[in-house]
User: Fold these one by one.
Assistant:
Number 1:
Amino acid sequence: MIAQVIVDVPVSRTNRPFDYRVPGWLSPLIHVGSRVVVPFGPRKLQGYVIGITEDDGPEEALHRLKDVEQVMDDTPPLTPELLKMSEWMSRQYLCPWVTAVQAMLPAVLKGKAQKWLTASDLLDEETCSRSGLLWELYRKRQLPLAEVEKQFPDEFMLVPGWIHSGLLSTEYQVRDRITKKQQSFVRSLLTPQQLSESLASLSARAEQMRRVLEVFLQHPEQSFSVQTMRDEFGINRSALKGLEAKGWIAIEQVEIYRDPYANRRFQEKQKPDFTPLQLQALEPIITSIKESSYASYLLHGVTGSGKTEVYLEAIEHTLMKGREAIFLVPEISLTPQMVERFKARFGADVAVLHSALSQGERYDEWRKIIRKEVKVVVGARSAIFAPFENVGLIVIDEEHESSYKQEETPRYHAREVALWRAKENNAVLLMGSATPALETYALATRGRYKLLKMPDRVGNRPMPQVHVVDMREELHSENRSMFSRLLHEMIADRLKKQEQMVIFLNRRGFSTFVMCRSCGYTMRCVHCDISLTYHKSNHTARCHYCGYTIPQPSHCPECQSEHIRFFGTGTQKVEAELAKLFPGIRVIRMDVDTTSRKGSHEELLSKFRQGQGDVLLGTQMIAKGLDFPRVTLAGIIAADTSLHLPDFRAAEKTFQLLTQVGGRAGRHELEGDVVIQTYTPEHYSIQHATRHDYPAFYEDEMLQRRRTGYPPYFRLVLITFSHEEVPVVVRGAHVMGDFLRQKVAQTTILLGPVASPIARVKDRFRFQIMLKYRDEPNVAELLAQATAVFEEWNKQQKVLMTIDVDPYVLL
Ligand code: ADP
Ligand code: ZN
Ligand code: ZN
């Protein structure tokens, strides 16, 4: 038997399967999709079996093959569909196959091979006395080499000598980073009859042992954890050990799941009577689900139109068909509130994959899927890889969110992977948003997705009234505060009426850079060439790319002026200002500083929900998906900071943000107001957001995109090169650029090579090439060829090259 294995070395040289012989004793364990350990050169690596053949080659060829050393799981973690999908991804996104595979698995399974140091039998107490390291090894037998280097830096250099003299040896081992969580359970091995007899045979002084037998007499057929025995029945471990020795009970290790929701009760919830718009949207979706045929829908519904109820109903019909459902939400909207809605409806059938879970918790949720213990997965981007084998429905909520695009290899978009998966499984793809991505809406208007509309809020609640305030006029009227007079008035009004508000700070701009107001000098990172961000807590300026940090200077390095300070507004500053203007106001601030601790996000939100705050103040974090009945005012401090980014999606992102924030107000019985403060009130993204007019925004923005040659009219590929020396990186970029220029179609535009907008990161210079194409039937193949040419040249150099297909970040 021969296994074809791809190994965990993500470079193109190894980006193909290698043959290994499967020793007889392993053949019952190995399957296509198994994780294995294989020798590779001098190392041992983790690999994935992508094919198995019976050995039919010539004997001598077979002899040259090395053996698979280990099969790591009883059940292969990769289904045939996932394997096929990973191969497609590696072609589509030009990434090494193994990186696509790894993106599909929970982190704990990406076990890294580690070198271990092992003590031999020659090592005795006497030899050990010379050295702390040897003593440690004598006690523990084995230590990872990396740990040895850290713990015993002084002795590390002696290790080769000890290996030479036979005291120590090294080997590579691949181990899972986290083992399963286990608990000890106690079970009776006796029949009730035997229990009574045994009880009678015990002396009265063996009180603890007698109690154990009594417990089992009262609860036949039941087992108890050792912990329960202790806490509820007051039985200590030695009594259990004694009974185990007699052979009357068994103490066993049982694997348990770490369930972060274990101690929460979920109320069962009845579904509502659907509105006519919901029914109209549901009808074709349910028909497609019943037919088990491929179909894709874009549900364009305003915030509060009841989209989530439509998703839940679609999922229920999928389960009734005996099929499984994947529900994707942006990381940031995967709130406990959202999880509750699912658990309330589908109970224990739901697994939740959330990055706030610990690695162990994630792994446990994932195992519920592969063991077919659940039928619904709710999760962020990577939940699209849930190892179901009968997917009938994939829902993508807030499909326009940029977090569906992965910004590291493999640079996939979850929407595109979902499309592939839906077609492969004859499943239904249902995308929903109040502000669909332009690309998606364009395809929907051309009929590639069926467009479903829900233009009204549930219960005919009015859309909130939107007020736009021109901040330039505020300044003319001598108002230098960050709050316009209108917003000030409305905050005071809500405080009086004891209603709640959200105040939102658009921080996607360069809002906290350090600038000299005399000469305009801005502080930049010396390694990365981007503005440093001001951090108030310790008065430093810090680079968000590499962590470079310097104290906030008191004088401008250029002109010596004292007027150098951070520019723009942070959440802390808004909080301070609110406290000054409205004494006694209760502000709950949510930003990276207050939410970095696990669980703090949820704590703050539930405090707000319980009315322990008047204002929820925050950044992007509070714009999405939250649903608070008593919020009647949403204020946006500076709407246009995101308009001025060097990004062709700047207007689209601004429109989305304003719409989302507006959607937070007046969702229930109380009506709501939205105040947008801006320096460019005439901009079309702000104007259309004010009127909740997505189609009008779409028309205007499409004109812009056509004029400037951006998606959806053109598709993009961004190729980025980096190296410590400018001439080297420029040459590398030209090697690839020249090749492409010869091969691309006439209608394709090739921009560059030019320096990237962020020209240097961590002391590496960055250059880029951008392809803009309309008619390039085989882009992937073309890029693969160009990559080969580049890599041939790059053999002696160390230029890093990345390809981003349909990029989101253009910096
Ligand atoms: P969206 O996802 O479009 O923002 P939701 O599905 O969250 O909207 O619905 C908004 C609110 O309306 C929620 O509180 C939800 O429980 C409620 N809701 C949705 N559909 C109905 C309905 N048919 N009848 C009554 N209430 C509904
Ligand atoms: Zn200056
Ligand atoms: Zn830096």
Number 2:
Amino acid sequence: MKGRNAVVTGSTSGIGLAIARALAVEGCNVMLNGFGDPDEIEAIRAETAAMAGTKVAYMNADMSRPEEVRALMGRAVGEFGPVDILVNNAGVQHVAPLADFPEEKWDLLLAVNLSAAFHASKAVIASMSERRFGRIVNIASALGLVGAPHKPAYVATKHGLVGLTKSIAIEVAEMGVTCNAVCPGMVMTPIIEMQVADQAKVTGLPPEEVVRQVFLENQPIRRPVTAEEIAGAVVFLCSPAGAGVTGTALSVDGGYVAR
Ligand code: NAD
């Protein structure tokens, strides 16, 4: 994978950052993206580049805005050359019963979790097909395969991402381009830490009990999956060994959907 050019959306923390680091260690140039403190992001960028010895750039494009998604992909081409690997990872969550679910949150989750993957994939697919190599990996969720209450937009967008994955995979199957989804179970990252804090307030339980009783209830391994375990699956799909795997939804969920 040495010399491949990768874009990982939403890679300033959590799973995306682990994926970006793992791809860089494999020899890829990596375009980081996401929100956060500019000094911290610059430290992450510089540290990843120094550790891996590859080019690592960053752009704070907002994945809820199609023109910024396209700008991110264009910037990556400008920095490194044609994009070989696209990991659509940026994601947001909102938890509320359907009757109270704010319409602007529905629109935001659709835009970031699903439409951004469409716009980013659309921007690279012709070039990948022409060059007869490409890897698109969509970070969906166990909730892209099964439902859960109070997460209508998240569940809908993650199921949509699995469907988008299959459609792209079949369309470009003969072009040396693969498209797969990775479906994580619960990984302890900022997106989950916020939900744990909310649930602790509602239930009066200490955060570690909320994790055990609520978030790990359906995860048979009874521990969070690690971001590095998700990154390992992405590296496999992008490696030569993954060339025959396309259109799949690869669960890295500690047995969540096996129940
Ligand atoms: P996280 O909150 O640590 O990371 C989300 C990343 O997306 C951050 O870099 C954030 O800055 C970025 N982001 C958010 N909105 C953005 C926007 N509008 N434009 C650009 N970047 C934006 O959470 P995470 O757990 O690492 O989530 C990564 C992906 O994994 C998400 O798609 C999430 O749905 C999925 N996932 C997470 C879990 C879990 O348990 N943590 C489980 C299944 C799936």
